Amino acid sequence: MTAIEERRLKTLLKDAVTEVLEERQDILRAAVQESLEDAAMLRAIQSGEKSRPVSRAKIFQRLARAA
Description:
mainly alpha
């Protein structure tokens, strides 16, 4: 592939991605939302690894009181 073909392909790909994101903002929104949820889950796991263990019964007691 020549440099000119590579530049043309890059331009076409950018245009296609831009068009999809403009027409289907829901796709971008869902991807960003999932990324934020993944980051929050990672922080929760890391926080849990640093805290002291809690029994399963204690967790369910808290959940029952919160409901």
